[in-house]
Amino acid sequence: MKQHIHRTIEPKQLNKRLISALFLLLLITVGSSASPTHWQKRVREPCKKLVLYFHDIIYNGHNAKNATSAIVGAPSWGNKTILAGQNHFGDVVVFDDPITLDNNLHSPPVGRAQGFYIYDKKEIFTSWFAFSFVFNSTQHKGSINFAGADPLMNKTRDISVIGGTGDFFMTRGVATLSTDAFEGEVYFRLRVDMNLYECW
Ligand SMILES: *[C@@H]1O[C@H](CO)[C@@H](O)[C@H](O)[C@H]1NC(C)=O
Ligand SMILES: *[C@@H]1O[C@H](CO)[C@@H](O)[C@H](O)[C@H]1NC(C)=O
Ligand SMILES: *[C@@H]1O[C@H](CO)[C@@H](O)[C@H](O)[C@H]1NC(C)=O
Ligand SMILES: *[C@@H]1O[C@H](CO)[C@@H](O)[C@H](O)[C@H]1NC(C)=O
């Protein structure tokens, strides 16, 4: 009976079966060899860690000379000199802040943190950040780009590292922000703990 079935299979059909069997084998080998590398990529070990600080001196009407940030947009119930009421909701602040290796504002900067933050909730203090670390020092050259929500009353907040250039070509990861100092509404210092999971 078995032999009979075999005999009835035409050579063309056999070829087709052989090809599909080979194709299946190929798929299995490709699949099994791809999965370990896929798995390795998902292991949550940073390829680079970096801790930096940046310092934001907000213009308050009297410090135009050393202010490093300015309110550029305010809701109609506010103005661009003083952050608005209701947890600053609606304010847009542009900054060009020095980045330092330690928490001292007067340490030699290794780059500038440039971008903006917006206050985006009336009920609590929370903001949204989009900025770059732009490096031009012997330690680092290039840039790292960041974006994400900054619920600034939390001790730590995670934002995304969405890319980079130069020494940080194509990097990605997570940056943990913490407020290292906060002086009135004129100065704050953020500690940025970067865990990069893609390094080239
Ligand atoms: C800005 O400069 C003024 C005048 O030099 C100084 O009193 C003030 O402390 C400076 N602010 C910061 C945050 O360094
Ligand atoms: C901005 O608003 C603050 C608080 O409402 C007020 O004290 C200040 O005079 C205003 N400044 C300007 C230039 O309108
Ligand atoms: C980087 O620093 C070098 C040396 O100080 C300077 O010549 C160059 O203009 C700087 N580049 C930028 C983009 O600031
Ligand atoms: C901020 O803190 C609150 C309360 O502690 C917590 O529920 C929330 O998940 C935190 N948010 C972030 C983004 O960490």
Automatic annotation (TrEMBL):
GO terms for cellular component: apoplast. Residues 1-34 form the signal peptide. Keywords: Apoplast, Secreted, Signal. It is found in: Secreted, Extracellular space, Apoplast. PANTHER family: DIRIGENT PROTEIN. It comes from Arachis hypogaea. Belongs to the plant dirigent protein family. One of its GO terms (biological process) is phenylpropanoid biosynthetic process. This is Dirigent protein.
